[in-house]
User: Fold this.
Amino acid sequence: MGGHPDPLFGLEDFDPERSYGSVIVAVPDPDGLYEAFAAGLRVTYGKLPSAGIPRILRPRKKQGTVRGRVIDPGGNWLRISRLGDTEEEAAMDRPAGLARVIDNAARQADSRGDDAAGLKMLENGLARFTDAPTIDRLRALLYRAELAVRLEDRATATASLSEAQSLELTDDERAAVEDDIAHAIELVVGDQDPA
Assistant:
């Protein structure tokens, strides 16, 4: 015997920002779950919280697997993945160049919670891979805008979004990233205080 007699209890001096609680949730449709959670958070908070507690990180395809994150009001990380996805199957299809930098930045920021390290990786990757395909540059700039919002760096967020929107894309490329652009706009514009 031993332990606490009540499975639901509060800890004195508990700080959700320092929580180590984590669970993996495998679902058939991470995008659908994200949309449901995001809608509820928008109603409750008036915007999509991407920094602080609670916050939600959009499902992102990394190395062939789909993963998203929700950090609840208690600081617990709900790591959401698509049912049946495995990193082992995707490891053989690793991207290169700037696309790989984006994946590595997401691993630092989304998986480990180190947004500053993820942003630094993106900055270095954008400087190094100046000849990267336009679609990869766009995705890197949009992710840089998202990380800057999380880090409360409005100037970088706004500049990154502006630069991303100035890139010339084919109709097919624009269709492929339409949701990514809308998400970045929501975060950057929604993060600004009304004048």
